[in-house]
Model the fold of this input.
Amino acid sequence: MTFNKILDISIKRIKQNRKRNLILIVPLCFLLIILFSINMIIYSVSSQIENIQNSIELRTINGISYNQQNYNQILENLQSIDHIQMIADQYEQKVIAVETCENLKNSFTDGYIKIKPINTKTCPEVISGRKISETDRYVIILPSKIYANSNFRDYTNPISENEYINGETLLNKKISIKFTPDNTNSFEKEFLVVGIYDSQKYNNTKTPYVPIQVIRELNKEINYIPNYFQLQITVDNISNVEETLRLLDEKNIISKNNLEKEAENTLANNISKTEYNISQSLNLSIETMEIIKKLIIFLFIISLIILLFVLLTTNINKSYLQTSELWILKVEGYTNKDIQKITIIENIFLCIIGILISIIIFILLHYIINFAIENILQIDTLNLNLKLNEIKEQIYYFSQIPQKINPIFIIILSICVIIIEAINTFIINHRILRNKNSIF
Amino acid sequence: MSKIKIVNGYKEYIKNKEKIEVLKNINFKFELGKLYGITGASGSGKTTLLNIIGTIDKFSKGTLFIDEIDISSLSDSQKANLRMKNIGFIFQSFYLNKNLTIEENIMQPMYINENYDKIRRKKRTEELINLMGLDKRKKHLPKELSGGEQQRVAIARALANKPQIILADEPTGNLDEKNQKNIFEILKQLSKNNKCVIIVSHSEKIKNYADIMLNLEEGILKTNDV
Done:
């Protein structure tokens, strides 16, 4: 029998047996949606862990004090630690106390930004344009989504989409930034936007980066003389922050105790203490996320086993329901091979339909849940009870994790479902067609 | 020339490591234009014999000839082709596709017959519907029909590809007296139209219609005078 004929008969059978098809499609869709959701959570959590580990700001340790005598010795010691990616003079940041940019203003924001210095090693990965080079001067790297506003926002009043500016629209254009280092001084400088980094990946919508040499030049322009001497280091990975602090302590450069002791006295150490605590708490949150991830992976494996079981049992039910039909086909002159091909193609089609329905429902559910979360966050719960506020806070933090799904996973899972279904159909039908007592 | 010829037919099963002889030394010729009735106690091998004649099963020893062709020499697809064009099956439980209309059920066996294109399929279906008196029922589903009507649909389906051999396994087993008579008359009429009709039945009425009565007793086929 030709393939076209088999295909034609398979499609006819699908159209004829709508109710029976549901035996396979409904449980398949249900389980696939669960598996897609679990995969999305695993993938999102993993991406978030990766994002945190990649975030430059959270890998930074400030407040490494030095004096003119021991500078070289401290620098040498720092350079001997493998995990340290970048060493910079911290005082150089002092020039950039308050900056505003007219180009980053809109009707909802005042253009307030927080510039940070980078060198070629610490430049974030760009999604458009290019990174900075050694020779660059008045260039700037912007986030893909910019929130340039002095108004502090958190879960109680989240930033709405229209408050953001799209960084891509400013690529290769010049923007003017007004520096206000103190109450009497202010000056403007033009910067060329050379690159755009992923604001979602770096979890940062507020920080443009400029070459550190520019900050040095600006310091000179305003005759700024630093009143303390400290170094700032960037660790290669957030999971190595703890280890780096231990090594710093070992080399008598910095210790947690010293840091905490001095923290009360100097502004710089206050900063370092805060930064360190952020790193530490993030490490804890990564650990928590890792535990959640493991739990979800366990759930995922259980769901996969259930999927396999459901696929097998629903197919057995469906096949035995059509025992007489298969035998009638046989007595009408279909060969066993023809019957196998017809039923396998029929079930593969049903699986494909099930997979497509699952993907559509999954996407719809995803939008509905996000829409619900957005609306919950808009509710003013401040005047309501504390419990509701706590729930809202948790929802806010949850919503901050970028939701991602791995398309390769969907493709692999779909192929596996189709292969399992085809093999299963073949085995069951082989048994049915061998047992003559099932009809005569 | 006989349509079906069985030479030294022998069939055995192995069940729980025990050998069960179902058919022993069967020698018989079935001819066109005759209605054969096969009776016998339950488990005497009637259905097994019908399956073998229908090329669904095969003898452990011995040979089945249909139109002088040794069936054991045919491949699966050749046997399927022979079944499609030469043999029509009728069952006690009708086995109609409950999701298809009467018309679609009758049309189904013609899908794989290269002699039937869409127009000829439609024409042949109309013929069979008229023949079985189902004109007003053709758009109905099987569940909307009486048992007798369903069996007439099953007969029409068995006749779709114009087979010369009709094998009926207890065709009246689920029917009342009136419908039993009706079905036997249809099958008798078919045999008169130069078809070889073989009916396995427990019904005593078969004797009124059969040209030749056969009895299977402990695997041995005996001819009874009608």
